[in-house]
Amino acid sequence: MASEHFQSRNTDTSPGISTASLPDIVFMLLIFFMVSTVLRETNLKVRTRLPAAEALTKIDQKRLISYLYIGPIKQGENQGQTAIQIDDALIENKQAIRQIMYTKLQEQPKLIVSMKVDRRSQMEVVNEVQQELREAGTLRINYSSTPASPGS
Amino acid sequence: MAGFFKDDNKQRRDAEIPSGSMADIAFLLLIFFLVTTTINVDTGIGMTLPPKLEQNQEPPPVKERNMLKVLVNAEGQVLIEEEPASVAQIRGEVRRHVLNYGKQPDYAVSPSDAVISIKTDAKTTYQTYIKVLDEVWMAYREIWGQVARTGQLPNGETVLQKTYPSYQEYRASLEPGEENVIRESIGANISIAEPDLGN
Questions:
Q1: Which residue of B has its CA nearest to A49?
Q2: Do B44 and A135 touch (CB under 8 A)?
């Protein structure tokens, strides 16, 4: 009886490794990425090569950030001209910034404006934008910059 | 032939849904998310702009000696208190200014009164401005680091019960809502002056 039982087992074809848990593992990874990241929202119309700095702070709460880009236009007839971009659109009239930012501030009172300014841009435009931000009341700003090694 | 349609034969073989492609689908989704998302944390120099002044309201008065004026021109040359200087000198000057405690008449009366004023030309590049601002912030960070390591203010006053290897460690150890003693005693007052119009 017993020997018969063993024989039938041995003649079975080699068992494949179970891959049933593989989808679970991958889905777990997927969900982790979905939760921990934010979708890339804007396509940039201006070039922003950020300056390097040492005294950096991290902004962990991405939901508070609103981006503002200043730099030369990448393509089109006005290529190379310094322009301001908020979300997906270039800002023609600087006065419009205060209205846009004011609306954003109403939605998120702890708003941080992350300024991504090209390193070759001049302070004139940066100052004008800052005056507009003061008008709007969005006073928390962040000069986005890349880490620099000390002494360089 | 008839045995093929027998009931018991059907019950023994459970129908299995093939789930081999499930992993492939999940991987596809995963790769899509990896490609379309940004993981990098935003880093930068945080600042708080001064609130808008009401009309006819004078800016708050600041004593001349408490103000360290840093001027940057279009070529990236620096003037500290009307004296030509280099960017690398800013850090030391800020430290001397903030930690003066009224000893020298040209520098600040106390750290909380000290104001660093940065003024740029309209044609100054952003990179130069960030470099100058960075030096000022690093000066403050060095001072904070020193306070955290020794537990004392530079004038000898003890403010911390125990010492920390760095200011970052001290800040991380704070409970939410707890007062940051170092920031309270040596606050960074950096003012960005209205720019010259380049005439």
A1: B127
A2: no
Interchain CB distance below 8 Å, A126 and B126: yes
3-class secondary structure, B182: helix
| Residues 6 or more apart in contact with residue B100 via CB below 8 angstroms | B107, B108, B109, B114
Residue pairs between chains A and B whose CB atoms are closer than 8 Å:
157
Closest CA to B76 of B33, B113, B123, B37: B123
Query: Is it the case that residue A2 has pLDDT exceeding 70?
Result: no
Segment B59-79 shows an average pLDDT of 83
How many CB atoms are closer than 10 A to CB A139? Answer: 18
Mean per-residue pLDDT, B41-45: 83
Burial class (CB in 10 A: 0-12, 13-18, 19+), B113: middle
* Residue A42 burial (CB count, 10 A): 12
Token pair 């004008």 is found at A128
ipTM of this predicted complex?
A: 0.74
- Per residue in A64-84, pLDDT (tens digit) is 888 899 999 988 888 888 889
Q: What is the pLDDT of residues B158-199, one digit of tens each?
A: 778 888 888 888 888 888 777 788 877 787 888 877 655 544
Cα separations in angstroms, A62 against A46, A110, A112, A133, B31? 22, 12, 9, 20, 22
- Measure CB to CB from residue B30 to each of A26, A60, A119 and give the nearest one: A26
Interface check A146 vs B, CB under 8 A: yes
Nearest to A152 by CA among A33, A54, A81, A19: A54
Residues of A in contact with B49 (CB under 8 A): 130, 133-134, 139-141
CB contact under 8 A, B23 and A139: no
pLDDT band for position A103 (50/70/90)? very high
CA distance B176 to B56: 39
Q: How far is B38 from chain A (nearest CA, A)?
A: 6
